[in-house]
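Appendix B. One record, verbatim.
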Amino acid sequence: MNISKISMRNITRQKKRSFLLGGAIAFGIFIIITIGSFTAGMTETLKENFTSIMGGHIYILGTETLESGRIVQVIGDTQDLERAINTVDELVEEYHVRSQVRMGEIIFGSKSTTLQVSGIDWEKEELLKDTLTISDGTLDNIETAGSLVIPEKVAEKLGVIPGESVLIRMDTVTGQKNVGEFTVAAIIQEQDSFSFISAGYTGMDYLNELIGLGPDEYQYLNLHLKDIAQMDAVAEKLITELEKTSLVDSGDDEDEEGEQDRRHGMMFGGGMTSASDEPWDGTKFSITNLNDIMEPVLQLVNILNIVSLALFVILMIITMVGLINTFRMVLIERTKEIGTMRAIGMHRGSIRSIFLLEALYLSLFGAAAGILLSFTTTIITGLVRFTADSALGLFLHNGRLQFITTPGSVFGVVFLLAVMTLIAVYLPARKAAKLKVVDALRAQY
């Protein structure tokens, strides 16, 4: 008789028991795959959104000391930097230079609010253009001096629409106050930005004039790599090359608080040095990358992964205990049946295989149900669109949560389940195979 058919038939003999065990297995698989898909999608979305916000994967900031002793953010003499980036040029897809006003005050009529303004070289930042979601206006004439892109939240506070003029009060790099006039060209959705930051964009040349930088100067150079996996290696290469000719602040010797300040400066502007720093000649460079910027957020993602794994392990242990107890009962219930099959010539190995296959099929059916339930849940959840000002803004991809389920991760979970199932049922299966024919036929249960 076919062992596989016997095992399949045995699953249906106690439908309620099989359903409860299969349901427990399905729930465990559903939890681990769903949370895994969510964290994988969250990580990928974070990388995409940070790359869009920051303009690349590696970020180089420069500071210089004026004759007055004041420290300003600027990359003026670019020769040393260009020499360094030439060593990694084949790994870079795009170079983005930017200037920035961290805490500008945008004014329209009697209303005002804060706005972070980044100066963009629009001809080179095609990636940014592609990722901006326009809700009103157009980017057709964005290269016109004074054209401004603002987020919906700012436009709603001010009551401004594309084509209208606004004023922005800002600090120059030397700490002076200045005011510039801008024309709103487009209004964008904020789902790919921070809920607590209002970020706008304008042409870098015009912004440089307002903050006191020359036409060829900039504050940041961001590198968009061809392969994001090369971030750490490229950053280390740049640090090594720049250290040959320039001062480099890599953050390796900073305490935790200083490192957080440096990251904050890289993301949102502001000095990366303290008032106690000694003056220096030339440009001091600071280099960081996407992994450094995302580290605090990824720590939360890792915690979520650990929690989901711990929950999965607990559920599997409970399920395995249930399998052991269930198949001990099965052994008792089928003792005479086992004796009959042995009497007609079935080998001990076949008896053991029937038990193992029965448990394996039950686990695989439960896993299939859990996978199907997970896929259904993630697809439906992924169709929900969140508002632009949602607190989840940074974790959204085009206004939706992104779930990423890889075949490798699913296979890994199912394989682990199968192994745990076979281990759990092996002892009852081995005991069933060792039953003596005479004793089994005499059994009364």
